[in-house]
Amino acid sequence: MEKENIAVGLDIGTTKIVAMIGKKNEYGKLEILGVGKSKSLGVARGVVNNITQTIQSIQQAIQEAENNSGYKIKDVVVGIAGQHIRSIQHTDYISRHNPEEVIGGNDIQLLIDQVNKLAMLPGEEIIHVLPQEFKIDGQSEIKEPIGMYGGRLESSFHVVVGQASSIRNVGRCIQSSGIELSGLTLEPLASADAVLSQEEKEAGVALIDIGGGTTDLAIFKDGIIRHTAVIPFGGNVITDDIKEGCSIIEKQAELLKVKFGSAWPGENKDNEIVSIPGLRGREPKEISLKNLSKIIHARVVEIVDQVFTEVKAYGHEDPRKKLIAGIVLTGGGAQLKHIKQLVEYITGMDTRIGYPNEHLAGNSDEEISSPLYATAVGLVMKSIENKTQSAVRMDAVEQPKAPAYRPTVVQTPVYETPEKLEELEDQNASEKQNSTVNRIQRNFFDRYVDKIKDFLDNAE
After folding, report:
1. In what residue span(s) does the SHS2 domain sit (predicted)?
2. Domain map (residue ranges) of the chain
3. What fold is seen in the domain 199-354?
4. What's this model's pTM, rounded to 2 decimal places?
């Protein structure tokens, strides 16, 4: 039987952690086999700040995805974001020994490896080296150099850089959760794969992914990534503003934002009021929807202004760099009412909401095709590119597992046979060793039981 190419993406966000298992169907579309979602604890503005809580949240999402799909996850492609991410433009070249030979993939790899050796600031690490346009012996604007002749191969690169410690913390959380890390991808690149069409990337488009803790930006033109940025604000700061402005608790503020929130204050009439139950024996609070949308509007304007500053920094006002396809909004923040109109008003650019359903199989769950899951879908698509089997069927896993536990059962009987003195000494030594093994196994089972308890508590 041919091995299935099962792909797994793990989106470690500030608000939620999503584990998604999928595979390509016969039509080349993405079929989602299972999704696990947990509240993200231990992540702030896209950066892990509590290892233990993050591991628990990851394990819960993984467990749910495994239960929903019937597959056991082995490795995942993870999205990376956070305010420590920055991108730089860099140009590099190689001189080829034999210009009479055609340029091959190994020449491009040599060039990429050279860029990977760039000296970074202390504590920084290169995440992605993305070739843009090539030059061969001075001939510019070459998109595909393979198969051409030339002595000097030059290229401009988009280099994405992040803090080494933050990247290692993410890796550690994943390995401590009992799975392997098969790849790291910048989150805006994953979201772009999920919601943008090739035509948009050619025409020029800015993807804005408004998450809970960060707002990610990716700009494409002529089918090539031109600019990326991570802004350390997202939907959570809007919730915090509502909490402060209306003097209510966070849970109520989030509910107000989702159910009644609007980014356009003119839409609400002065007499529209929502009543919120007071805390323990206190009077209910009456909140004007007009005031609520004023609070939301102020913060959304600030976020969009910061993103637009990045779009201008790319050079959008230059006619050759114009983004004809405008802006695509995705992420949980894109579900805020009237945000599309506000973004169009501030930037003067065409705007649409990006749904990941273009790449999904027709029978996909409606919830998965929401902008909320754009990054997770993009990460599964990245995992498919790796052509590895990231998950295996549970029934294929559980059969070989049984013998692994047998030795612990066999160790319990004590055989009262006459033995030599030396052998008794050996037995004492091995008993000592066994007690260590049993202790390790006990620790493992205690941890496993705790994990199940956590899972059941959160499921209530």
Report:
1. 7-195
2. 89-163, 199-354, 411-459
3. Nucleotidyltransferase; domain 5 (3.30.420)
4. 0.81
